[in-house]
């Protein structure tokens, strides 16, 4: 079990027991008992869910199927270094972390692609630091769409031997065009994925 998970769980357990004891001492028996009994139960359930997520991360990329749609490259090369704001989904040591727009930033700078989350302090708590890849690090970057929630669109960033990272954007075409021109391995065939949480 990740050390961060152990520390967070222990701190949460101590806080709920102390709060429950304090409430019992001031005569709030209902709330006090709820925290003394319910707090550890909720923390235990949370640990089990996180451990399940960690086991899933070891399985690699999420299964994807071709949707039959092939995107067309757009000639959209900005004059400055490209930077996109959207959502993201990455594997962390506490399971997968999903962040909606505008909490993820994908940036191409100095020939490397970087995915980071903001605010940085909160992302670090969940174990989602920044990811940085060179073109040779990647197997493929391809457009994706949610199988159930068809409105979810973005790109999958596939790295050899590691779980797939996702960047959510409503317009993946210009992003893929810029990355292809920068020498990244881009595939234009869209894939359907289960939206990961």
Helix-strand string: HHEEEEHEEEEHE
The N- to C-terminal Cα distance equals 20 Å
The total tally of domains equals 2
Main sheet specs: 9 strands, mixed
Strand content: 25-35%
CATH class of the largest domain: Mainly Beta
Which CATH-level-2 architecture of the largest domain?
A: Roll
* Low-confidence residue ranges: none
Arrangement of strands in the largest sheet: 1-9-6-7-8-2-3-4-5
Helicity range: 25-40%
CATH topology of the largest domain: PH-domain like
Derived structural class: alpha+beta
- Tally the helices: what do you get? 4
Gyration radius from CA atoms, angstroms: 21 Å
Could you give the count of β-strands?
9
CATH superfamily of the largest domain: Pleckstrin-homology domain (PH domain)/Phosphotyrosine-binding domain (PTB)
Mean pLDDT: 80
**Spatial shape:** elongated
Description:
With 197 residues, the protein is of the alpha+beta class. The chain has two domains: 3-57; 64-193, Pleckstrin-homology domain (PH domain)/Phosphotyrosine-binding domain (PTB) (PH-domain like, Roll). Helix content is 35%, strand content 34%. It has four helices and nine strands. It has helices spanning 3-25, 29-57, 120-125, 172-181; strands at 64-70, 83-92, 95-109, 112-117, 131-133, 138-146, 153-159, 165-168, 189-193. A nine-stranded mixed beta sheet has the order 1-9-6-7-8-2-3-4-5. Helix 1 (3-25) packs antiparallel against helix 2 (29-57). The mean pLDDT is 80.
């Amino acid at each position: 079990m990740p050390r961060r998970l152990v520390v967070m769980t222990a701190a949460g357990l101590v806080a709920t027991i102390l709060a429950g004891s304090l409430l019992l001492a001031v005569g709030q028996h209902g709330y006090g008992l709820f925290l003394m009994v319910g707090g550890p139960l909720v923390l235990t359930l949370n640990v089990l869910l996180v451990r399940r997520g960690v086991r899933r991360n070891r399985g690699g990329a999420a299964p994807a199927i071709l949707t039959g749609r092939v995107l067309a490259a757009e000639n959209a090369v900005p004059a400055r270094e490209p930077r996109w704001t959207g959502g993201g989904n990455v594997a962390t040591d506490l399971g997968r972390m999903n962040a909606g727009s505008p909490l993820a930033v994908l940036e191409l700078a100095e020939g490397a692609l970087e995915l980071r989350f903001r605010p940085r302090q909160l992302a670090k708590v969940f174990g989602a630091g920044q990811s940085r890849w060179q073109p040779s690090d990647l197997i493929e970057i391809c457009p994706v769409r949610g199988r159930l929630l068809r409105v979810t669109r973005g790109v999958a960033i596939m790295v050899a031997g590691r779980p797939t990272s996702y960047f959510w954007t409503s317009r993946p075409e210009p992003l893929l065009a810029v990355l292809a021109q920068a020498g990244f391995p881009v595939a234009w065939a869209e894939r359907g994925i289960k939206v990961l949480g």
